[in-house]
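worker-03 picked up job from queue 'complexes'. Input manifest follows; two sequence lines, order preserved.
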Amino acid sequence: MRRAWRWLMPLAALPVLALLAYGFRIDTRAIPSPLVGRPAAAFTLTTFGGEPVSLEAHRGRVVVVNFWASWCNPACYDEAPVLERGWRAYRERGVAVLGVDIQDTPEAAQKFIRDFSLTFPNAPDPGGKVSIDYGVYGVPETFFIDRHGRIRVKHVGALTDGLFREHVDRLLAEPA
Amino acid sequence: MIPEIGYGALLVALVLAVYGSAAAGIGGHTGRAAYVESAQHAALGVFVLVTLAFALLTYAFLVFDFSVRYVAANTNRGTPFYYRITAVWGALEGSIILWAWMIAMYTLIVILRHRRNAREFYPWVLTVLLSVLAFFLLVMTVPAPPFQRLTPAPADGRGLNPLLEDSGMITHPVALYLGFTGFTVPFAFAIAALITRRVGDAWITTTRRWTIVAWYFLSLGLLIGGWWSYHVLGWGGYWAWDPVENAAFMPWLTGTAFLHSVMIQERRRMLKLWNIALVVLTFSLTLFGTFLTRSGVIASVHAFTQGSIGMFFLTFLALVVLGALALLALRWDDLRGQGELDSVVSRESTFLLNNVMLVAAAFTVFFGTVFPLLAEATRGVKVSVGAPFFNSVNVPLFLGLIFLMGVGPLIAWRRASLNNLVRNFLWPVTIGVVAAAVFRLLGVRSALAVLTLALTVFVAATIAVDFARATRARGRLGERLLPAMGGLLVRHNRRYGGFVIHLGILLVAVGVTGSQAWSVQDELTLRRGESTELAGYRVRFDGLAASEESNHFKVTGTFTVTNGRGHPLTLSPAKKFYPRDQTPIAYVDYKLGLREDVYLVLGDFARDGSQATVKLQVNRLVSWIWLGGVVLTLGTALAVLPERRKTA
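worker-03 finished. Artifact:
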């Protein structure tokens, strides 16, 4: 066999490897939610502090609704400081962050809120009604709601500072 | 302290592995034994450190040390004791540490066994093994650290994926990983053979047992995976052509090809290049499997979480594949075979055909698995490839392979004469044809089922004919029947071990055929006290009961099953509700039988217990698959027995 031919074998492996590398560019977790673009379902809950919290009260503002649980580890643990930072950075600009705690015990949830010194409103979802309305199938999931009360982005998994800013900035830039 | 000690141990192990790999290479290159000796010490150090890390992680699980992030993510206070141990390898980071520990253990065995009997290969084998170890240790220190401190430590953990709370999860990953990692050793020897230009049969004879053992564990892992799927997932099947199942199946196919093709090299000095290529391919496919499970590139029910780890695996895979193939190209001239195919009708060509079919099957499975990726890359559409594709391309190949399983071991080397063919195959073929007619008369309608079963009978007949003839030959020498049979098995353990393994595969084939062709199922809602009938079984719904278990809530249905003979049977399928999961997990109840299994899955139910939906299946011959696994185990044990000097 000619000398050059023998190199065909390693060369033949290259396209296969390239194809596998391409796999990183696609997101198999991007599951489009049928709720995106639709009006967000209204809810009224009572926070752990005993205050009422409702989506309706924030009409006209950009709202970030985050579903979490104290047993959701590590994703919710990674995400909690991100939400708190985002809330502090954007509250002056009229952005609301609401936390909905699902399938949890009040003690564990309150310890979680204390541990991360969360200051935005957090409420349990007794009976899971809100999480059903929002089609939540795992925690954490975060919904970004625009000033007209429509769900614009559904994010599955832990948020990062970059993602938080990106989505909120875009919704803030839109005309009211 | 556990996170810090564990992380430190892995870091030191990484340094040692990198050092040892380099030292062994220098030793191999210069021939200075001191370097190899030093590398050996490094490898021992790696083994001790990885063992320590693994033990620490297990300990952290047992004492609920939630300051370790991985522990908090995969267990909670309700997790029962046994599942806290299996939880150690239940997710990404822990599976990598188990993997690394196994390679470290294999490396230790290589040192103990081959330090003296494979001198020329030994330094390079160490280099390869330690490099692979270094890679896995790197993964554990950078993208997937099992020891990461979680602050603040939560009061309770998240809990194990409920589907993994099953005894099959103790053995399935362990067997599978023993198989996957086991192929590292033949691969290391193949690379050593290429580097030292000793591509004769020495590396093959040295690794023969390694290959069989790795192959066996891989087979066992696949079978236990099937068993888990069958009795836990509640869809009544054992194989779904899921990408991750495929990932384990592909190296099995090429590994099987390798087991057979080495016999040609040993006997006829042919296929040197092919054998090395097969072992490189098999090892690469085990890495591909890990890549697939851990990169999130292809969606699958088995997939672990994604992260930068995929990139690490792909880079390593690329290094291995390109490096090994380039080395192969450099050594091309050494790899020319000495023998030639004398005839198409010979054992060589049968084995070659078996290899072509096995590799073709591996290729189609590979193609089907990455096709969704290819489609998205080229046309931008999301598609999924399902069971119909895999079945329609693989069934003919598997039928051909079963046929060859009968022909290969008996046909003559070089050139089979007509006389040889008649002597060996007249009876088996006759028996096979008669069997086909009998099956047909018994009312087997599916042509595929008739063909498969007749082929199985044919293969079993070839084995029986061979065994009977060999026993008779010993009988003529004055041995009595039973000692003659036993002596055959022990003295020719490799050949007869292979035959027993073939019988195991035949049992699996019968089980697959039977369950595909004759299983029946029904799904319906029953009121309390009401009965239904399926395939001669009468099933009555007797009511529901609820109970609180350590980490979940359980609703159990009671059903009485009668089939006209024997005692009525009570089956209690249940639904388990885990607090953190939206969807309940099915708990299947079944009665296994040689002929058929009765299999019940509880569906929706009325809260007051007045009615329940139940899926009722009568699955035919499925137990033969698990029986095949037992026979496979016996055959492997026989095949790896040390070969006795032939005295008779």
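worker-03 released lock.
Residues 187 and 280 of chain B are 6 Å apart (CA to CA).
Chain B is about 65% helix and 10% strand.
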